Amino acid sequence: MALPRLHTVVLVSGAALLTRRALKRRIARSPLWPLPALPEPISGHSKRRATAVRKLLITGRTEVAEGVVQLRLEGTALPPWSPGAHLDLVLPSGLVRQYSLCGDPADTGAYTVATRLVADGRGGSREVHEQLQEGLEVEVRGPRNRFPLTEAPGYVFVVGGIGITPVLPMLRALAASGAEWRLLYGGRSRASMPFLEEIEKLGADGDRVTVVAQDEAGHPDVAGALADLAPGTAVYCCGPEPLMAAATAGLPEGCTLHLERFSAATGGTAGSERSEAFEVELRRSGRTVPVAAGQSVLAAVRAELPHVAYSCEQGFCGTCQQRVLEGEIDHRDELLTDDERGDSMLICVSRCRGGRLVLDL
Ligand code: FES
Fold it and tell me: Is ligand 1 within 6 A of the CB of residue 318?
């Protein structure tokens, strides 16, 4: 009597397996299959970026310098972070903007960010300054860290204005550990430079901090700050593009340079003139979309999947990074590491070298 029952079980299991495989093949191949995107990547890898959105309560709002507002965002079970990390803020209009965490990583109940009002900017900072008030909730993603503090025998920081935000937690950590560090900190005026008092205290045990206010002393001498550095020194730079260009040009041999961009590099490859049509298969969604010459992969993908996250559309923030399952990528950003370029791309600027890409979307 046991044998027929076993036979039935084997038959049913086999049929279920075949149906599952057929369904997966159908999802993978048919551009017409009307299922929504599967929630998890099918590549066998976990999602590389922290994409979960959480709502945090604004419990503090302080003006920490002229035109600079600091927000304390409280929540529970917040993911840990390390100096250099940033948070994506999903603003009330839907704009997504990146802001460096400038608080204390040991404060596990809140994140702290600071943002300067850029009156002629793209609208993100204005929205933060005008709409994000105490008592409101704001959606965030992350944190992520593309600007981590690495092991080095010594550190030099070259910072302009609000670029101090990712650097401040680094300075606190280095000061606490007794590491060798120096900071060149430039800004329009002392009143416009956030966290000046704390930074000068952190560097009070030596000639570590040089503050250059433009209205008193002009522009900071980046080449001078980088001259005669010991080999192996890690140079960190965050600020306006000319400052980053000066740090890049003045980097001594044997030192490493770490840049944090919040705007596109001048002369970057984003928006390159080479722009041919191709198609993109969205494997998890079971759809294929054409990408026209001159159209970004992001625009083509969002026509099918409007929830796909993006922010800068210029290849510097990393929000639109997606895993590539097949196809040859034409990378046109300056953000991803060589390792990341192996199997992912920034779909706002990068394209395809062949006729077809397959994304894990
Ligand atoms: S949206 Fe910022 S890198 Fe693509």
Answer: yes
Tell me, what DSSP letter sits at residue 88?
E
Question: Residue 358, class by beta-carbon neighbours within 10 Å (0-12 exposed, 13-18 middle, 19+ buried)?
Answer: middle
Cβ of 56 less than 6 Å from ligand 1: no
Cβ 317 under 6 angstroms from ligand 1: yes
Probe ligand 1: pick from 269, 308, 311, max atoms within 8 Å of CB? Answer: 311
User: Do 116 and 276 touch, CB atoms closer than 8 A?
Assistant: no
pTM score = 0.76
- Rounded Cα–Cα distance for residues 56 and 113 (Å): 12
One-character DSSP codes across 170-226 = HHHHHHHHT--EEEEEEES-GGGSTTHHHHHHHTTTTT-EEEEEHHHH-S--HHHHH
Give pLDDT tens digits for 84-139.
999 999 998 888 899 999 999 999 999 999 999 988 777 889 999 999 999 999 99
Look at the block and give the residue holding tokens 């279920």: 16
Q: Does 346 contact ligand 1 (Cβ within 6 A)?
A: yes
Mutate which of 96, 310, 341 to test ligand 1's pocket (most atoms within 8 Å of Cβ)? 310
Q: For ligand 1, say whether the CB of 312 is within 6 Å of any of its atoms.
A: yes
Contact 296, 349 (CB under 8 A): yes
Domains (range + CATH), the chain: 53-143 (2.40.30.10), 155-260 (3.40.50.80), 278-359 (3.10.20.30)
